[in-house]
Amino acid sequence: MEKGFFFGEGSQKERLFLTCCGQKQCPADFTCGPSVRSMFLLHYVISGSGFYEVRGKCYSLHAGDVFVIFPEDLVYYYADRKNPWSFCWVGFVGTAAEDYLQRIGVDSEKLVFSQPHDGFMKSILRYLEEADGKNGPGLRGEACLLECFASIEACRRPDSQEERKNRYVSRAIAYMEYRLSEGIRVLEVADFLGLERSYFYRIFRQETGKAPEEYLIDLRVEKAKQYIKKGLDFSNVAEAVGVGDVSYFSKLFKKREGITPSEYRKKLSDTNAGIIGF
Q: How many other CB atoms are found less than 10 A from the CB of residue 115?
């Protein structure tokens, strides 16, 4: 399988710009280079084995390893003929690019490391599924990069068990908010984090005092209230919070607020009218 997008080299003046991304199942005779790139590249080895040569060193890489290409480095990488690798990658430039790499513990002396879970890969594959490759990466491309960095940071930063739990929950909440309109389900959140479902439920309740489903419903209702205040039609509100059926959305809203969306809107209208009359 091979799929990829190249968006051009962007502008070095931009904060962060996704230049390319993709996935490739390599044949036994796959080689790339020697070549010099004008961007940063992160490759994640999905399966198999291969080799990466840079700055006079040769690294043997396997599933779960990440190798980094810095701009202007002469690099050469190729598949193991007996067990050819598959990998996915992201390329990027921007004024903040090196800062993000430093935050995740990567610099020009640390070009290869292991990535214990596959959140990095999932971020790229999901972006490849959603993007059309025609209109540029936009904010979604930047979000993909940030998810990749966050995934690496989660694995490389030494911290306590309590800090890890807190970070997982923070990422879960951010992910819920980011994908709310898509009808995100709790199982998808656990899968994104690479956590077993029961463990995810347990730490989420410990940190927030709510079960993930309950938190997600509350998030939908709170977002819906914001959209209703802005005057959106109820069908648009339902869609914006990831509940396609307006009738179900109304029941969900009433269960949480004690009144229907229509009654909530009327209540807002009456309140505003009272303020104006005063």
A: 21
d(CA 157, CA 105): 8
CB 34 within 8 A of CB 77: no
Series of mean pLDDT values for 10-residue runs along the chain (278 residues):
71 81 94 94 95 95 94 96 95 91 84 84 86 72 88 70 83 89 91 90 94 94 92 92 91 93 88 54
Q: Please state the φ and ψ torsions of residue 35, each to the nearest 5 degrees.
A: -155, 165
Which pLDDT belongs to residue 157? 57
Looking at residue 11, its pLDDT comes to 61
| Contact by Cβ (8 Å): 48, 84 | yes
What pLDDT shows up at residue 275?
Answer: 47
What's the CA gap between 79 and 84, in Å, rounded? 5
How many Cβ atoms from other residues are within 10 Å of residue 19's Cβ? 22
DSSP code string of 149-198: HHHHHHHHS---HHHHHHHHHHHHHHHHHHTGGGT--HHHHHHHHT--HH
Distance (Å) of CA 80 to CA 63, 111, 231: 12, 19, 59
Q: What is the CA radius of gyration of the chain?
A: 23
User: Does residue 212 have a cis bond before it (omega within 30 degrees)?
Assistant: no
Burial class (CB in 10 A: 0-12, 13-18, 19+), 102: exposed
Backbone phi and psi for residue 6, each to the nearest 5 degrees, phi listed first: -125, 120
